[in-house]
Amino acid sequence: MASFSHTVGGQTWRFDSLRELMAKATPARSGDYLAGVAAASAAERVAAQMALAEVPLKHFLIEAVIPYEVDEVTRLIIDTHDALAFAPVSHLTVGGLRDWLLGDAANEAALAALAPGLTPEMAAAVSKIMRVQDLILVAQKIRVVTRFRNTQGLRGRMSTRLQPNHPTDDPAGIAASTLDGLLYGNGDAMIGINPATDSMGSICTLLEMLDAVIQRYEIPTQSCVLTHVTSSIAAIERGAPLDLVFQSIAGTQAANASFGIDLKVLQEGYEAGLSLKRGTVGNNLMYFETGQGSALSANAHHGCDQQTCETRAYAVARHFKPFLVNTVVGFIGPEYLYNGKQIIRAGLEDHFCAKLLGVPMGCDICYTNHAEADQDDMDMLLTLLGAAGINFIMGIPGSDDVMLNYQTTSFHDALYARQVLGLRAAPEFEAWLARMGILHQQGGRVRLGDELPPAFRQALAQLGP
Amino acid sequence: MSDKSPATENPWQQLRNLTPARIALGRAGTSLPSRAQLDFQFAHAQARDAVHTPLDLAALGESLGSLGLDCLRLHSAAKDRDTYLQRPDLGRRLHADSAQLLREHAATQGGGCDLAIVVADGLSALAVQRHSLPFLDRLLEQVRAEGWSLAPVSLVEQGRVAVADEVGELLGAKMTVILIGERPGLSSPDSLGLYFTYGPKVGLTDAYRNCISNVRLEGLSYGMAAFRLMYLMREACRRQLSGVDLKDEAEVPSLAGSGQGNFLLEGR
Question: How many domains does chain B have?
């Protein structure tokens, strides 16, 4: 292991490993204090950032933050590194990479070509010396486009995952939230349910119901029931109509083991999904969720800071050509991200690092009631991520998830971002919304239909007044 | 909203009967109307207050006394709410003074006990204040019928779930149950959680605990919660274990697939 040092302001700071240097260079957040890896003072943090800026990118290929021998995520990162793609920046330091990314040479095509040449640790390192505006400016140059039953990630577009959760998985309750969301123009990323009950019977029931709704109303979107990948494989074997294969993932082998997964079982899930051939415009079908702090909460962080661990999860994600990846940024609680400021920065870091690595990133812009955060903080993160070119956000009724007990972006919030930033839905879904008379958008002008679409009027009529 | 309101109502109000979710809120332009916006803010304020309002231990101790229960007042190693929120490790351990108090109590009593009940503020003192007493009233009737010996009730300030393991170990208890305020949801600021461990000792993980969640008026009733907990405790005594290997067979089936209608898929 190399040791690093930096002298500034008459004091010399020493860091014994790349892992320690990365941790101490990380902008302050509660999870790194909890882990005992954060810088001891503000000055030490900046000294670490200065030392990190001097580290050649090539060094990241020599010194792993978690040993190759003990961690299959490290092996995946090293074994799949593309030296040819790396060549344009291989002579640079971390500080040099930041300057290069901000310059004209780093255009959309150059950044797309670079992605397989960067390791997660390089992306995490450069993000640690970037301000919020840098994270936004560079991310918005990048487009990661994916396809299943519609197209995600195009420039000027932002999609929403309609999340119609219900405390007891009641089908009528789920249908009510689904229709509410569709009538507010949400649901192009997916209609995705977190089931309250994890039994195979209820998972298959929900999959069949979502498939039937999508088919009957000819909605160009995809469905997902967020259950363990092995449950999705079992559902596929039972013949359930499954679109997207879900799994929570993390950046270390040990954290993934705590989720009951490894790369092999993810590969099996991916192949099971592909075998159904349900995509119409493409075959991206994995849906992953991540979030800073997950490795530490499983006591599987190997002394790494939580943002570096998080970025390593994107190496796992990109290996399976995902349709969408979602950083559930404020869900984990204040012991990892204490307040609105920490949540906002973490959301922007995750989006930037993922895009730099070629991962189709969205964000569950969210908070819990024991975090020092509120709706104003979420509005800020939503606006900033919209400017940064986020692939998708959540859409739930009135920001209140009545099953998971947390707050995320609402159907209305998505329409705010469409108006202010001119961001439109996925093209296939946008055409459906227009055909149904639900929503028309021109630039930042969003018009919702005055009348209920006939097909839905009929469905509602059955309920009586 | 009257016809004169500049906000627009949604013509699908009848769906509100089908879910507690905040649907059919209407819109002002495409944004939330003032009424819905302020309803949300009030719910969030209630949840925030639930997290930050301290538990009134004196009042709780008095009420428990009226049920014929002795109490021990304890504090976790987290000195205040700010520390508690950022250092879950400290909330899981007792303050040294509290640990000493329990050791002294155990030394004078000797012999241990069957069940140590712990009550902790957790993330909602409101939940503890509202539900711990009526729930314990139901539970104790059945505990006494089993003939189990009880330690005094331990009241822990700034406590997390695992603190019950240290309490149970120091008191030489065969089983512990902790009543603790759960993370408040926007629509559920007062949800009480129950966690049960057989053979409590410091350092056990969640895999050794059984959880009964969402005890409140709109959720799981006191009677049903006590029924489930008694089932778990009897089974635990029989099999001498708790946690993932002890399934809650008393579970009520979920509604999914129960054949309830889905208006989006019927008709035509």
Answer: 1
Tokens, residue B190: 């007062």
| Cβ pair A400:B11 closer than 8 A | no
Residue A111 structural domain = 4-139
What is the tens place of the pLDDT at every residue in B67-124?
Answer: 899 999 999 999 999 999 999 999 999 999 999 999 999 999 877 999 999 999 999 9
User: How many domains is chain A built from?
Assistant: 2
Please state the ipTM of this predicted complex: 0.95
In a domain, A463, yes or no: no
Q: What is the DSSP string of A423-451?
A: -B--HHHHHHHHHHTSEEEETTEEEE-SS
What 8-state DSSP symbol labels residue B147?
T
Q: Which of residues 35-54 of B touch A (CB under 8 A)?
A: 36, 40-41, 43-44, 47-48, 50-51
Q: Are A141 and A105 a contacting pair, CB within 8 Å?
A: no
- Give the C-alpha separation, B221 to B227, whole Å: 10
Regarding whether A222 and A87 lie in a shared domain, the answer is: no
B244 in a structural domain:
no
Kindly list the residues from chain B whose CB atom is less than 8 angstroms away from the CB atom of residue A300: none
| Nearest CB to B123; choose among A179, A370, A460 | A370
Helix (H) or strand (E) holding B41: helix B34-52
Range 73-102 of B in CB contact (< 8 A) with A: 85-89
CATH for B131: 3.40.50.11240
Q: Determine if the pTM surpasses 0.80.
A: yes
**Which residue is listed with tokens 């919030």?**
A413
Quick check: is B37 in a domain?
no
Q: Which residues pair with B156 in a beta bridge?
A: B74, B120
